[in-house]
Structure formats: C-alpha cells, structure tokens
C-alpha cells in the first residue's frame, strides 16, 4: 500500500484533465471561428471530481465567471441561485 501511495505522490499531471483542456481549446476555436458562443458541458460522477476539474481549469486561466458548477446537491449558493 505504501508503494502505491508513493507512486501516486509522484504523479504531477492528470492525462484526462490535459485532454479536456486540449478538447476545450479545439472546440472553443471552432466555436469562435463560426460565431458560436463558447460553451461546453462536462459531466462527472462526483462533486469532488467536478471541483478538481474546475480548480485545474482556473489554474489554466479560466475565471470564476467562465465556470459554472451545477449538481444535484443544491447546497451551494450558485445552485440555489440557478434554481430560483
């Protein structure tokens, strides 16, 4: 178990997040070129993953206004505002 933990600690990049960023760049470029609003929907299985992806996108230059987190929890201010 300790060996697995040590290997996990050495991982510095997440290939799925890297691929998502590339896909967003390609998709948004296409949308810009064709006069389409730059929007994407990313589905996750958990709120933890959702928050992780949002954090990684913010680190890449996306602002708070660029990212909308929406889930069935209804426990955050943004979700409450959307439902109202």
Protein architecture, described:
With 84 residues, the chain is mainly alpha-helical. The protein has helices at residues 2-10, 15-33, 47-59, 77-83. Helices cover 57% and strands 0% of the residues. The protein has one domain (2-83).
Describe the SSE topology.
Layout: H1 2-10, H2 15-33, H3 47-59, H4 77-83
Summarize the structure.
The protein has 4 helices and no strands. By secondary structure, the chain is mainly alpha-helical. It has one domain (2-83).
**Terminus-to-terminus distance:** 47 Å
Sheet of most strands: none
User: Unreliable segments (pLDDT under 50, ≥5 consecutive)?
Assistant: none
Q: Given the C-alpha coordinates, what overall shape results?
A: flat
Helical content stands at 55-70%
Task: Please give the number of β-strands.
Answer: 0
Give the strand content: under 5%
From the helix content, strand content and strand pairing, which structural class follows? mainly alpha
Rg calculated over all Cα atoms = 16 Å
Tally of separate helices: 4
What oligomeric assembly is this protein in? Answer: single chain
**SSE order, one letter for each helix or strand:** HHHH
Q: How many domain modules? A: 1
Mean pLDDT: 87
Q: Tags for this entry?
A:
mainly alpha; 84 residues; flat; 57% helix
């Amino acid at each position: 178990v300790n060996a697995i933990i040590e290997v996990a600690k050495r991982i510095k990049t997440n290939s799925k997040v890297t691929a998502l960023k590339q896909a967003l760049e390609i998709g948004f470029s296409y949308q810009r070129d064709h006069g389409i609003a730059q929007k994407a929907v990313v589905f996750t299985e958990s709120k933890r993953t959702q928050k992780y992806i949002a954090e990684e996108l913010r680190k890449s230059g996306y602002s708070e206004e660029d990212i909308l987190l929406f889930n069935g929890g209804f426990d955050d201010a943004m979700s409450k505002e959307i439902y109202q």
